[in-house]
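Re: that chain you flagged

S.,

Sorry for the slow reply, it's been a week of failed gels. I finally had a moment to sit down with the sequence you sent. For the record, here it is as I used it:
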Amino acid sequence: MKDLSAKKKKMNQDYALAMKNIGWFTIMDFKLLKKNSDITKKQKIADKAIKIIRTHKNKITAFKAYSRNALENIQASAEEKKTLLAGYDQGTRSKKARAAKRYWDLEEKVAGSVKAMIDMLAAHQADWQIRNGRLEFRDQKLIERYNSHIDSINRSIEMQNTLRRQAGK
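Prediction finished late last night. Pasting the structure tokens below so you have them in one place:
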């Protein structure tokens, strides 16, 4: 069982490191944005982030099957295995398990919203600029679209934080 916990912890550490290595945690820093080349880099980061998240979600699914298989092959009596497997199966259907799935769906939604926002900026480069380290727009509709993306990102992150707090209880 310790082996399973260690594998899950390593999987999550690998995910965080992959996201860090592509620059995900600084993707929303527009202070140094110089349009063309930087916006293209941010688009590539967002694309990579979406792929990393989807890969991680697939690894989570595979890990669940691996974990159940490990329990099936544990050295224990038939009755103990039956109890362990029943508990495991119940846990995978629990509110906490559904919350974990929702968390990763929201993670993917955040990356998708960031990607859409960056794609919007790329498509309308003549309608915005960086001034005094701030992103400024020349078009009201573009501001509204940008703010809509930011609102979506913030709502998703707040839902993730709620799920995290609930899981900690």
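What I noticed first: The longest strand covers residues 128-131.

Talk soon,
D.
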